[in-house]
Amino acid sequence: MAWNEPGGNGKDPWGHRNNDQGPPDLDELLKKLQNKVVSLFGNSKKRNSEPETPDNLELDPRLMGIALFVVFFIWLLFGFYTIQPAFKGVETRFGRYTETTNQGLNWHIPYPIESVVKVNVEEIRAVPHQALMLTQDENIVEIALVVQYQIDDAKDYLFNVKDPDSTLQQATESALREVVGMSKMDEVLTSGRDKVTEDTKKLTQEILNRYTTGLIVRSVNMQNAQPPDQVQTAFADAIKAREDEERSKNKAEAYRNEVTQKAGGAADQIVQEAEAYRSQVIEKANGETRRFLSVLQAYKLAPEVTRKRLYLETLESVFTQTSKLMIDLKQGNPLLFLPLDKMIGANAGVEDKASLSDLDMFMRPSAPLEEEETPRPTRDTNRPVRSTP
Q1: Which residues contact 80 (CB under 8 A, 6 or more apart)?
Q2: Within a 10 A sphere around the Cβ of 82, how many other Cβ atoms?
């Protein structure tokens, strides 16, 4: 039988007797709670002198004020917060932006009046994008790229746009389609990839600034750019032909540079040789001029001596350059001793050596030369005789 059923013993499970069967009185419960609070913060003297009854117990206003102050102080302590070096703190009051705090210890009015949102502004985030694009020459290319960005303004990132990351992805696609649509297929796939990524980055940043998303694009990296699979083989052949063309151009350019450099070197050598020859001729002419002037000066002082000396020097220079020997046999000396080794050695550095046939001609005995009678010119007695050295 249950303890609260009629006919029971009237005791509850805690040993209390249940006198009435109705629900407990709410006012009585509040009074009991009040008595317990007063027993903690009430006047000790009053409690000692008077019995603890609900009628004579009263709350002390000073103790209640102290308790409220302690509670308020503890509530204020909840307003302290710390911002890490890579973060920014965005404070809001009843949901409205108030200020942005930097790293370190900060304080704001505790919840529910103010709240703070910590935003990482140094984290590099990435958004991939891949799509088919139509180029200016009406070709289709498949492009895959990754946009790296970070938060530049925490306030704009939280309050100006509902979903800044999605806005960035849409802005990237719009900018990429515009740039690819103004470029040819060969530029996008080969030489113009850097220009495509740079223009896409610039245009994407302009769109983000226009919407004040608080984001800044750090880099745009193109991972892949290729035509559709249906034309992949033909495009590979075109790329190979283009590479062969570039290789042929490079070879021709190298050959042209080599020939040009050799021709330039030969031209410089010829010019330098001509300059050296000109200097040599000029110096030789100057030397001959000075020599002639010195001889002229000596001739003016001693004409006869100078004339004879010039004549002898001329004969000496002429006969020293030849290997021929002139022998006068009129004096009747048939036996000759010639120093052939010395004669050949002396003339080897000037001209070619005399042949043995020529030397044999001089060694072969011959008859005395007969003197032919030649008519002599008549001398003009009226013409003065000129003496020769």
Answers
A1: 105, 106, 107
A2: 11
Name the residue among 61, 28, 27, 55 with its Cα closest to residue 42: 61
Positions of CATH 3.30.479.30 in the chain: 125-227
Q: What are phi and psi of 148, to 5 degrees?
A: -105, 130
Tell me the whole-structure pTM to 2 decimals.
Answer: 0.46
- Report how far residue 339's alpha carbon sits from residue 221's, in angstroms, rounded to the nearest whole number: 96
In sequence order, what are the residues at sequence separation of 6 or more whose Cβ sits closer than 8 angstroms to the Cβ of residue 225? 141, 142, 143, 144, 188, 189, 193
Question: What is the length of the chain?
Answer: 389
Q: Which of 368, 361, 359, 360 is nearest to 333 (CA)?
A: 368
Q: Are 299 and 308 in contact (CB under 8 A)?
A: no
DSSP letter for each residue of 143-169: EEEEEEEEES-HHHHHHT-S-HHHHHH
pLDDT at 191 over 50: yes
Q: In this model, does residue 16 exceed pLDDT 80? A: no
Q: CB-based contacts of 182: which residues, under 8 Å, 6+ apart?
A: 136
Query: Distance between CA atoms of 224 and 230, rounded to whole angstroms?
Result: 17
Whole-number Å distance between alpha carbons of 359 and 338: 10
Nearest to residue 240, comparing CAs of 185, 279, 190?
Answer: 190
The reported pLDDT for the residue numbered 44 is: 45
Is the link from the previous residue into 112 a cis peptide, with omega within 30 of 0? yes
Helix, strand, coil abundance in the chain, percent, nearest 5 = 50, 15, 35
Contact by Cβ (8 Å): 195, 207:
no
The CATH H-level superfamily of 125-227 is: Band 7 domain (3.30.479.30)
CA nearest to 127, candidates 210, 204, 206, 226:
204
The H or E element containing residue 278 is helix 232-301
